[in-house]
Amino acid sequence: MLKKLLLPFLLVSFISANDDLNKKDIERMISKMVVLGFKGESINSNDEIYKNIESGLGGVILFDKDPTNKKKIKNIKDPQQLKLLTSQLQNISEEKLLIAIDQEGGIVQRMKKSNGFEDTLKAKTISIKDIAFARESYKNLATMLNSNGVNLNFAPVVDLAVNKNNKVIYKLGRSYGEDAKKVTQYASVFVEEQKKQNVISVLKHFPGHGSSLADSHKGFVDITNTWSEKELEPYKEFIKNKSVDMIMTAHVFNKNLDDKYPATLSYNVNTKLLRKELGFEGVLITDDLQMYAISKHYDLRTTLKLAINSGVNMLLFANQQAKEVSLKEIVDTVYSLILNEEVGLDKIIDSNEKINMLL
């Protein structure tokens, strides 16, 4: 059975038929596909996250406040502490570890002015300033990320502000506007400045969250009657210009794109539309799979099976809920899916190859 599973790897990687790939090798490849949240302002060799990184964890995501007790710090206290933490994290891994954050500006900033970091205006405010102002703002943001050891930012948002009743994008000022060209122009500056500082940008939220009425953190979001194809325009431009390395999926449902699954779990959206039609060749990462739009409707095994088979390369578990998901749980589940031929090993190999291109 294992020989059968290993055959795709041998073919794709041109490894000699005499070479062996054991269970541990496959588990490390699965681990590389995971970005995990954890609690701790500092870490040591006894901590689970330390052992996870030793096991090949692909990345971590950092937060300031602990959502289960907002009086407590989760990961980020101040610049001095953050630099030490990211250095500790990076030094564990033999390979480059992705250290991620949500630092859009405005309300979505994990590195806050009140904690000694530089403030960045929200996208809506920056969009009424000129490009030179935007460039200076994002140059400062990117420099701050780099100097604090953060190399992956879940930004910029390229959702269009097309729905004035949208609570998670429009009303929070997270979009540069309704016009796709303007959104692309300002988002491009964000991406360019981060690239100069070796910070990977992640466009979000594919195929568009700006027309939604509900919040996917809280539950099911149906955009069937509000979404339009113009929400794909920023993605088309970035992909055409080969200026995007990473895209994040949205937990939104559109029966015109897939009458069964939300985008994060949809082969029609992630492979047929994003890969084949739009031509995206980079890394596709899920939004947090513990958000209620997913976790209230699918168990872990089903979520992992659908996400990987849909064409997703990285799986984000932010661990912002009271019940945390462990790397072992994820790896064991995916390994079981491979053994049962519910997920092809080729999906794991392809994802690892794409991730390696980032590092």
Automatic annotation (TrEMBL):
SUPFAM superfamilies: (Trans)glycosidases. Keywords: Glycosidase, Hydrolase. One of its GO terms (molecular function) is hydrolase activity, hydrolyzing O-glycosyl compounds. It comes from the Bacteria. This is Glycosyl hydrolase, family 3. One of its GO terms (biological process) is carbohydrate metabolic process. InterPro entries: GH, Glyco_hydro_3_N, Glyco_hydro_3_N_sf, NagZ_Beta-hexosaminidase. The keyword Hydrolase applies. Belongs to the glycosyl hydrolase 3 family. Pfam families: Glyco_hydro_3 (PF00933). Residues 44-342 form the Glycoside hydrolase family 3 N-terminal domain.
